[in-house]
């Protein structure tokens, strides 16, 4: 099984942004040693408890401290930006780190309405224009690196790397799956944040995939939330921090970051919140190596995924890295 890492650079309670970003760099180095295929960083804006708003900056730092693992923005929120600039940034990364750069495209705002307005004056208009924005971006990322915008002369998103960055489309719905199929792009399905039927969404992608002039084939990645520990009991203890933090963020109480296991255990829950917690657990993989390995393999089988990308959130960074170690040990055979 091909395994990869998705990192939102969460801050633990009492931790600084700098410490969280350094932990992300350490996680990337660990993932490379363990044999993970990719390490992607998410893009969020002014969301309490998340340290990374500029994944492309972090990837340049991480790239300088790793050698083989693929690095990607997962996702760069394209409606906020001009495709030309996105191409310049990722072509620069691909020039510095040949054959290792991915560009994951998303369309969500990644923050509040106020943040959306601060980043863009016409975000919703650009969301509707996403197919055209993707086409333009792909033109700049092709081996020639040139694209003609209407009647304008061709321009190049220099520097032009020997190996172009790999473009992915990220999503949670049939709409994104069909767009990825139409554009002949690899598709990353965010299982951990989607309430839609995974198998149905991915079938829409595979069944409607357009091979295009380059005779491409569908490629599926499924991103899951998982916490693995030596025993099922310990895994549920570690996962509770992440689960309680999710509830706190919904109530506007998550600014301090991921709570400790003790803080999470002592957090008062009403009946409605207890029910919500159980539903959240159903979207996660929580357990020992045997339990987590079995459930990850089941997701891969059901989705026909070529790759599983794991996002683990924990208060203790050692618990976080240990989760990835145990998953790798179980599945890399």
Q: Helicity, in percent?
A: 40-55%
User: H/E series, N to C?
Assistant: EHEHEHEHHHEEEHEHEHHHEHEH
The outline comes out as globular
Could you say how many structural domains there are in total? 1
Outline the biggest β-sheet. 8 strands, parallel, barrel
Strand adjacency order, main sheet:
1-2-3-4-7-8-9-11
CATH architecture: Alpha-Beta Barrel
| Rg, Cα atoms, Å | 20 Å
Give the CATH H-level superfamily: Luciferase-like domain
- CATH C-level class is Alpha Beta
Number of strands: 11
Low-confidence sequence ranges: none
- Sheet-strand content, in percent, reads 15-25%
pLDDT averaged residue by residue = 94
The secondary structure category is alpha/beta
* N- and C-termini, Cα separation: 9 Å
CATH topology: TIM Barrel
How would you describe what is shown here?
This protein is of the alpha/beta class. It is globular, with a radius of gyration of 20 Å. Strand 3, helix 3 (83-96) and strand 4 form a beta-alpha-beta unit. Helices cover 46% and strands 17% of the residues. The longest helix is centred in the C-terminal third of the chain and has 19 residues, at 232-250. The chain is built from 13 helices and 11 strands. The strands form 2 sheets. An 8-stranded parallel barrel has the order 1-2-3-4-7-8-9-11, surrounded by 9 helices. It has a two-stranded antiparallel sheet with strand order 5-6. The protein starts with a strand and ends with a helix.
């Amino acid at each position: 099984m091909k395994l990869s890492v998705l990192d939102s650079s969460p801050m633990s309670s009492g931790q600084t942004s700098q410490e969280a970003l350094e932990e992300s760099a350490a996680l990337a180095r660990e993932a490379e040693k363990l044999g993970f295929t990719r390490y992607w960083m998410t893009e969020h804006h002014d969301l309490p408890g998340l340290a990374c708003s500029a994944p492309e900056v972090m990837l340049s730092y991480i790239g300088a401290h790793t050698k083989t693992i693929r690095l990607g923005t997962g996702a760069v929120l394209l409606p906020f930006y001009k495709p030309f600039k996105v191409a310049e940034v990722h072509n620069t990364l691909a020039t510095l780190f040949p054959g290792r750069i991915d560009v994951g495209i998303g369309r969500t705002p990644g923050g509040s309405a106020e943040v959306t307005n601060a980043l863009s004056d016409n975000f919703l208009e650009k969301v509707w224009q996403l197919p055209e924005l993707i086409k333009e971006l792909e033109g700049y990322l092709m081996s020639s690196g040139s694209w003609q915008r209407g009647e304008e002369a061709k321009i190049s998103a220099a520097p032009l790397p020997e190996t172009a960055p790999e473009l992915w489309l990220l999503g949670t719905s049939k709409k994104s799956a069909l767009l990825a199929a139409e554009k002949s792009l690899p598709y990353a399905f965010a299982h951990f944040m989607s309430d839609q039927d995974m198998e149905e969404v991915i079938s829409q992608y595979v069944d409607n995939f357009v091979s295009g002039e380059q005779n491409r084939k569908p490629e599926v990645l499924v991103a899951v939330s998982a916490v693995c520990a030596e025993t099922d009991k310990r895994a549920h203890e570690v996962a509770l921090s992440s689960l309680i933090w999710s509830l706190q963020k919904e109530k506007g109480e998550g600014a301090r970051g991921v709570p400790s296991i003790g803080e999470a255990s002592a957090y008062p829950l009403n009946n409605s919140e207890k029910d919500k917690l159980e539903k959240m657990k159903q979207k996660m993989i929580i357990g020992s190596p045997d339990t987590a390995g079995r459930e990850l393999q089941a997701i891969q089988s059901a989705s026909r995924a070529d790759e599983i990308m794991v996002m683990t959130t924990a208060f203790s960074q050692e618990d976080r890295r240990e989760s990835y170690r145990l998953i790798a040990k179980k599945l890399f055979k």
